[in-house]
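Troubleshooting entry. Yesterday's outputs looked truncated, so today I'm pasting the complete records for two proteins to confirm everything comes through intact. If either block looks cut off, that's the bug. Protein one:
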Amino acid sequence: MASIHRSANAHWQGGGKDGTGSLTTQSGVLKDSQYGFKTRFENGPGTNPEELIAAAHAGCFTMALAFQLSGAGHVPEALDTAAKVSLEQEGAGWKIAAVALTLKAKVPGLSQEEFSKLADAAKAGCPVSKVLNATITLDATLES
């Protein structure tokens, strides 16, 4: 069985609320990218884990759908997905409770019924969907 490995590193200095951190990914797309309390719980400059999960989920789902569509003989003209991660307080901590995926797709010659079936299969089969312990919703629009 084949396996693929991807990695990222986090560095942190200081306490939880007043400390600062940086994230670096294997690919170098993120290199010492700033994150901290203000980027996670307020709107400070930098990134945060939930934003990165949203990007990963949007990318994973969209690619999975492109494979589903191509496999069914329908090459998409355009697939645009937004992912909104909901972080909710749970006791003294926090949890990712939900991810709302919103898709706008342009796929010539595809029926609404087949589109919905393939989009649902991509949502269920995407590796990021499989790893999240959250409610995942999909609002999918097939544009003409």
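Protein two, checking that the full record survives here as well:
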Amino acid sequence: MPMELDKFDRGILAILQRDARRSAELIGTAIGLSASAVQRRIARLREEGVIAAEVAIVDSRAIGRPLTLIVDVEVERERSELLVSLKQWIAAEPAIQEAWYVTGEGDYVLIVTARDVDGYDALMRKLIAENANVRRFQTRVALGTLKRGQLVPVEPTSE
């Protein structure tokens, strides 16, 4: 059962999603709680898994991975042992930023970063070589980024 979130929890989450380094004092001032109350609530949100991670977002271009590709992957058979193997391969591959199991023509959508087309081509040859269950894949190259992030809308409660 999902954790009940009140207006203070939701306020904390809205602020932390934009700036996880914001101090408890500043968050408390913004939402009307003491710093210690904010710290307790943040600890509870972490323990309950509402806050899944706190990470630094790195600009892929700044570290030499300017190419973003959206890849639709179609599998040959949906046998569980073959799917488990593919899922493990995807999870272990650092160049794959996101992976979604989807409906439609393809079975998975991958978001991949690469240094260049040759690097991407090598990754996809490795995917095919190490996963015989992959029937085909289709690649779209991102020409620009309109929006990117993990921000989840936190609607206020009716309190």
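Both blocks look complete. Sanity check on protein two: The mean pLDDT is 93.
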